């Protein structure tokens, strides 16, 4: 009996150990009937690197689904919010990770996010006297920020504790994961799930040129007196954000530049971000300074504890959630599910996109062939 169960268990290889790969691997593992192996070049336990976007995220849950009209994006964000909202409960399973807080989204770009955000707790639009400089409208609600290094390691720990296997290797071609030959990988996997983020642009067999980097540069300020978040999206395309972390730091940013591969912080970007966030939140300056005079960005410099750059995995057409039968060799044809291209929303859509990837996997293994990108625009 035992032997038949093992034979029925399918071997799945997930490529990628960012937030998307880890969440997808756990989702498949939890379904039962699968033995899951993650292969990746970089894991959450590694030092931060430009090659691994997930370490650099904020990460807050403020859905931007309005910028991608696909209903599916909104549903992915909502499903993820419901799961993470439970995880973020005081005394929840991942201590030292989540901070629930009030967030206000200010805009002057004409977009109305009500349709995408009205499920957020205590959602309401703000009155004119609550607007920050540069804003014409605002919406406020309760959300959470998670601390990526802790969250990602918690996911990895869950995966391993539940019997998952990890293998470190940089693949040159997706077929290398299909035919055995890499120590630790199953000789004959039943399916591959590709969650390779920006790597989809380069990995042989995928080489998706619709994938491009959207550079971000963030600054962590030691400002434990600020316990709320704000974003401002302007008509000219400029965008600033600040989000408090459970650590007592406030992460600030405002750089979102497509096709900029520059891997380290730029001074001009630092000054631009500090000026932008100070305008929407002068309270970021130490309270004694703020009480006496209008703070300047020099008052924020001494609060800087970390700076970094991350490349969001942008994709023309949005997240790729598709499955196909891939011909690794004339003798080897196996299902590949694609789940990459999450741009600036990989955390907030992680569980939702993992659910879709699992559905694609099961339908393809059952003999079907699906493309959920169709009919959703
Ligand atoms: C500044 C900034 C702020 C952000 N803020 C937020 C936020 O507030 N909320 C939010 O939801 N999102 C946010 N994001 C976006 C989020 O970080 C990304 O969408 C998410 O991290 C993408 O995850 P991923 O798993 O697809 O990619 P990655 O984290 O880059 O992981 C890719 C994985 O694939 C592996 N891989 C790739 N190619 C290969 C190969 N050839 N062989 C082996 N392994 C390979 C890598 O080693 C890695 O393990 C932010 C991003 C940035 C840069």
TrEMBL record:
InterPro entries: DAO, FAD-dep_OxRdtase. The keyword Metal-binding does not apply. Residues 11-358 form the FAD dependent oxidoreductase domain. Its cofactor is FAD. Keywords: FAD, Flavoprotein, Oxidoreductase. FAD binds at residues 53-54. It holds the Pfam family DAO. One of its GO terms (cellular component) is cytoplasm. One of its GO terms (biological process) is D-amino acid catabolic process. One of its GO terms (molecular function) is D-amino-acid oxidase activity. D-dopa binds at residues 312, 344. Signal peptide: none annotated. Belongs to the DAMOX/DASOX family. PANTHER family: D-AMINO ACID OXIDASE, D-ASPARTATE OXIDASE. This is FAD dependent oxidoreductase domain-containing protein. It comes from Pisolithus tinctorius Marx 270.
């Amino acid at each position: 009996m035992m032997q038949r169960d093992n034979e029925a268990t399918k071997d799945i290889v997930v490529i990628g150990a960012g937030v998307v790969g880890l969440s997808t691997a756990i989702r498949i593992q939890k379904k039962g009937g699968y033995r899951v192996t993650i292969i990746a070049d970089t894991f959450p336990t590694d030092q931060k690197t430009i090659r691994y976007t997930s370490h650099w995220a904020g990460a807050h849950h403020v859905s931007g689904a309005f910028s991608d009209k696909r209903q599916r994006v909104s549903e992915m964000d909502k499903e993820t919010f419901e799961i993470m909202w439970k995880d973020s409960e005081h005394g929840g399973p991942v201590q030292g990770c989540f901070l629930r807080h009030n967030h206000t989204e200010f805009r002057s770009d004409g977009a109305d996010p009500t349709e995408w955000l009205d499920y957020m707790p205590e959602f309401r639009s703000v009155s004119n006297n609550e607007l920050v400089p540069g804003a014409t409208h605002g919406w406020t609600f309760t959300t959470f920020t998670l601390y990526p290094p802790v969250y990602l390691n918690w996911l990895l720990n869950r995966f391993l504790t539940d019997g998952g296997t990890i293998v470190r290797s940089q693949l040159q071609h997706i077929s290398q994961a299909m035919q055995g030959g890499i120590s630790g990988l199953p000789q004959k996997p039943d399916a591959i799930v590709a969650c390779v983020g920006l790597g989809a642009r380069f990995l042989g067999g995928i080489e998706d040129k619709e994938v491009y980097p959207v550079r971000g540069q963030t600054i962590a300020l030691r400002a434990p007196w600020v316990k709320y978040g704000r974003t401002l999206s302007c008509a000219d395309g400029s965008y600033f954000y600040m989000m408090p972390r459970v650590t007592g730091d406030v992460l600030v940013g405002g750089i979102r530049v497509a096709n900029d591969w520059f891997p380290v912080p730029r001074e001009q970007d630092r000054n631009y971000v500090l000026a932008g966030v100070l305008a929407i939140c002068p309270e970021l300056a130490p309270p004694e300074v703020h009480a006496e005079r209008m703070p300047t960005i020099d008052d924020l410099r001494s609060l800087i504890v970390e700076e970094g750059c991350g490349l969001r995995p942008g994709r023309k057409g949005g997240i790729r959630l598709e499955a196909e039968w891939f011909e690794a060799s004339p003798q080897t044809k196996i299902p590949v599910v694609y789940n990459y291209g999450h741009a600036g929303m990989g955390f907030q859509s992680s569980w939702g996109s993992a659910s879709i990837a699992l559905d694609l996997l099961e339908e393809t293994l059952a003999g079907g062939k699906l493309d959920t990108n169709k009919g959703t625009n």
